[in-house]
Structures are given as C-alpha cells and as structure tokens.
C-alpha cells in the first residue's frame, strides 16, 4: 500500500504524470468565492461555472452533502467539486465541515479516479474555512483512497508546514 505524498506547493498545479483529479470541498449553499476555490477559479473558469449551475438546478440533480461533481479542465486534469460543508460560518452547530459528507464524497472520488486511471491531488480538504482538522480528514483519505490503491498528493501552500515527503 502506498502512502500519502505531502508536498509544499499549489494543488492547482498538480505534480506527476498521467491523469490528475484535483479534489476540494464546497459548501451546500452555492457560495463560491473564498479559500481554495479562488485559486481554482484563477486557473480555470469551468469548475465555478459548473458548481453554480449544479446548485442552481439542485431540484433536478444530486447536489447536496456528500455529492461530487467532476469537471474536466484539460486533457489530463479534472476538478472534483465535493460538497462537504454545511453552510459557510461557524455557529451554534459548530464548524461547517461535515466529515461524513467528505467520506461519502471521497468514495465517489475513488470510483472516478479508478475509472480515469488518475492520481488524486488536494489541499488539506475541509481544514481551511470549513473548520475541520486534518487528524479527522486524513483517516478518511486513507480509507477511501489510499487503501483502494489510489495515489494521493496533499499540498501545503505558503507558510503551512509540510509534513515530510511521503508517509506510509
């Protein structure tokens, strides 16, 4: 079994060969404009456009916690818009992250990655504006992706600490 590769860098510029699937967490309100999505939109307009359409037409599709929308942005790169947070603000019900939804979404990501023969690339999903902790998300990534043989690279951007090159 391979581990998770941790790199310092930008998850919107995934490293390596072959097809790459970039995964990030979205909210269930249709809001797009803060956090990692800003970097995604700077590079490609399609993920935001498709997410907004997906939310707008939610009465007729699967939009909701745990759902994932796969958007091709190049011949070898896809973006996975994964709905893994309820709302956008910390309040009386705690932080917006929903670990169960992330786990469900990662299961769909594993299926798509296997279908495409893709590696998976992500920031520390659910741990920015969603308010989650990597100690809760990493086991989900391991169970849903790594243990299924899907190569995973996690990117630490800027001043965040990178956690070693590779961990088993």
From TrEMBL:
Q: Which CDD domains match?
A: Macro_Poa1p-like
Reaction catalyzed: an N-(ADP-alpha-D-ribosyl)-thymidine in DNA + H2O = a thymidine in DNA + ADP-D-ribose
Domain called Macro: residue spans: 1-168
TM annotation in the entry? none
Q: Which domain of life is it from?
A: Bacteria
One example of a Gene Ontology biological process annotation = peptidyl-glutamate ADP-deribosylation
**What PANTHER family does the entry give?**
ADP-RIBOSE GLYCOHYDROLASE OARD1, PROTEIN C6ORF130
* Protein name per Swiss-Prot or TrEMBL: O-acetyl-ADP-ribose deacetylase (Regulator of RNase III), contains Macro domain
């Amino acid at each position: 079994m391979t581990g998770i590769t941790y790199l310092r860098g930008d998850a919107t510029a995934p490293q390596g060969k072959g097809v790459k699937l970039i995964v990030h967490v979205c909210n269930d309100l249709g809001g797009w404009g803060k956090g990692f999505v800003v970097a995604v939109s700077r590079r490609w307009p399609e993920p935001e456009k498709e997410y907004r359409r997906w939310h707008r037409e939610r009465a007729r599709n699967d939009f909701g916690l745990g759902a994932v929308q796969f958007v091709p942005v190049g011949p070898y790169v896809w973006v996975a818009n994964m709905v893994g947070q309820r709302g956008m603000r910390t309040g009386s019900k705690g932080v917006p992250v929903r670990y169960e939804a992330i786990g469900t979404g990662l299961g769909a990501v594993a299926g798509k990655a296997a279908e495409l023969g893709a590696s998976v690339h992500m920031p520390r999903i659910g741990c920015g504006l969603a308010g989650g902790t990597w100690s809760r998300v990493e086991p989900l990534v391991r169970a849903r992706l790594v243990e299924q043989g899907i190569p995973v690279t996690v990117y630490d951007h800027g001043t965040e600490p990178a956690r070693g090159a590779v961990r088993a």
